[in-house]
Amino acid sequence: MDTQAVQKILVPIDFSESSMNALHTAIGMAKRQHAQLILLHVVNISPLVNNKDDGTMISDSNLQTLLDTHQTNLRKLADKITNEEFIDCRAIIRTGWVCPEIVRATVDFYADLIVMGKHGVSGTKEFMMGSNAFNVLKNAYCPVLLVPSHRRFEAFKTIVYPIRPVEGAIQKYSMARNLLRENDAELIVVGLLENGEKASFEMLSQETFKLDKKLKEDNLKSQTGFYYCDSVVAKVLEKTTDFMADLLIITASIDHHIQDYYVGPFVQQIVHYARVPVLSIRPKPADAFVVKSINEDEENSEYPYPVQMLGII
Question: What CATH number is given to the structural domain containing 200?
Answer without folding.
Answer: 3.40.50.620
